[in-house]
Amino acid sequence: MAQATRDEGKKVNSDINVTPMVDVMLVLLIIFMVVTPMLNNKVNVELPPAAAAVVMEDANKEDSVVVAVTRDGKTFLGGDQVTGSDLGPKISAKLENKTDKRVYFRGDNRANYGKVMEAIDGIRAAGVSQLGMLADKPLI
């Protein structure tokens, strides 16, 4: 009687099956090729750095109208402190005889947002259509 042996060990294949890995890599490659053009959807705009200097020069003129809001909520028209309700009529009086009806606004970065919006509403109530925002550092 002969002993039955299993010879399955001789059939073991030690080669790496790379087909699943290649399939996964091709799918990832296709995904990245499709998604990459969508990532760069912003429009680059180069603004001239001289534009900020021109606005600052106009705001520094003697007859320019500058409104400022401080961090403690005080509103100033030029160097004079005004209330929110008086701001519109005083700006109208200052712009009455001027051809350039431009107002410049300066707000502290820690100022109350409500006070800033109240000042801007007062400027708009005076009939100003051009409002220049002033900053200490260039925004560019």
UniProtKB/TrEMBL annotation:
Source domain of life: Bacteria
Entries under Pfam families matching the protein: ExbD (PF02472)
GO CC annotations on file: plasma membrane
Keyword list, A-Z: Cell membrane, Membrane, Protein transport, Transmembrane, Transmembrane helix, Transport
GO molecular function: transmembrane transporter activity
InterPro entries: ExbD (IPR003400)
Membrane topology: Single-pass membrane protein; Single-pass type II membrane protein
Keyword Membrane in annotation: yes
Compartments where found: Cell membrane
BP terms from Gene Ontology: protein transport
Protein name per Swiss-Prot or TrEMBL: Biopolymer transport protein
Natural source organism: Terriglobus roseus (strain DSM 18391 / NRRL B-41598 / KBS 63)
Taxonomic lineage of the native organism: Bacteria, Pseudomonadati, Acidobacteriota, Terriglobia, Terriglobales
